[in-house]
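Troubleshooting: if your tokenizer reports a length mismatch, compare against these two reference records.
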Amino acid sequence: MFTGIITGTGTVLGIENHPSEDLAVLTLKAPGHTEDLGLGGSLAVNGVCLTATELDGETLSVDVMGETLRRTSTGELRSGSIVNLERCTPAGGRLDGHVVQGHVDTVGTVLAREEHGQWTTFRIGLPDEYAPLTAEKGSIALDGISLTITAVSAPAAAGAHWVEVGIIPITLKETTMGSRQVGDAINIEVDVLAKYVARLNAFGGGK
């Protein structure tokens, strides 16, 4: 489990695709995030929970299976890409953000970026099926960053749903959001509680 509080950024050293195996191997430099990690340990990379398969100092490799490549922006990473990093939350650790599983649901698109002096608003487009799982003042993880939704599109906005978030300067500086521009892809993980409620309702409220 993660909290969406990014603890640093890393740099992609390379990504090796194996189409016949429906797999890619991602290698990255992760300063400050490999101590006590161990093979099989978890690290969130742009909000995607990945497992360390090779370790060499601050460099690690992870296997990215086809499902993850299809559901996230990981396959678009290239050598030199900067990524958000977060180690999993230890038992008894502070939950400063919200419950983030590292199970990215979909990829959204930055529709607008507006500067307001001391903070910045981003509007993120998302597929219709995920719009009911978002709510004003609810939580969302964008590229692994725990954020509060400040506005949502109207229920009737089929084909054009979006959420807005406000981001303060320190988050812009310490994460990849500072470089995000209109048109950029971004990983989205909606609140896990919303997903369970929706699933329960699909079965008639559990009756």
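Reference record two:
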Amino acid sequence: MSLRDLAAVEFAAETTYLNTASIGLPPARTLEAMRSAHEEWARGRASAPAYDAVVAAARASFARLVGTGPERVAIGTTASTEVGLVAGSLPAGAEVVVAEGDFSSLIQPFAGRGDLALRTVPLDDVAAAVRPGTALVAVSAAQSADGRVADLAAIRAAASAHGALTLIDATQSLGWMPLSADHWDYVVCNTYKWLLCPRGVSFLVVSPRGAELLRPAYAGWYAGEDPWDNCYGPVRLADDARRFDASPIWIAFVGAVQSLALIEEAGIAQIGAHDLALAERFRAGLTDLGYEPVRGNSAIVAVRGLGHVADRLDAADVKVAIRAGGLRASFHLYNTIGDVDRTLDVLASALVGRQARR
């Protein structure tokens, strides 16, 4: 099935929705699966152990999307707690390099420790900032505020040269940007944006080297080798990355396995080509109107200082976000050229209106 046909079957937005970087739209198959699960629960027919198959399927699907094995993938509920697991495992005084203005869920767990040497540098300088003695470099593959993409190859090379651990947040990239998780020590991803899952499902990919440092500080019964065999008192933790699992939000995973399957079916390469083409069309149109979008090969397009047009866009039923005072539009598989052109028309009208008032 073509991407266009798949989108027509699975999505039914009533707006010009350019806000996936905030919340992805759920596919029809995801809504139906969750609806059925809620009904089964209400009828008293839900079984807690039966959800394990759904969790396992979602874990395996995510692993395939990032090119690794499910034994390296831990499940969670939100990216910040998984970053916190890494932050809490570092020794006091460890130096951590992060990008200036990166999303707080990636930075705050390190800042909140209070006893780490946190160095914040511009995104373009992250690789150069890694030095002997740097314990960890942590960066989002794509920036939430403006869509800029990190130079991951340079960061990986710098970290390797100095023996630093690496943590990549793929929340704003995975779904349109390919990622090989085995290139990194840790990859975290919240799935309710570009992977179109319900909120409450996240993943942490852990390398063998990263696992040596990581302490299963949040381990509960679900992190056991056999959670249903022994869920009272201390348990024997799983031998693989499941030892870092948080207990799953079951019905969220019921939906997630459907959304992840759709992303696999469509293919990240095909989705990425579609998303990037729309984003580039939007950038070109903004430039023609006299605006200055943030440049880059990203599905997220930002225009700094354009937050004042948010009300005009909302009145036209065009859904975007305002981040750091700028307009942020994000394009995904359910968007079309018509969405781009309609948004540009609204912005052109806003520009004409503003000039007329001068």
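Descriptive notes for reference record two:
- The domain at 3-27+267-350 is CATH 3.90.1150.10 (Aspartate Aminotransferase, domain 1).
- The two ends are 51 Å apart (CA to CA).
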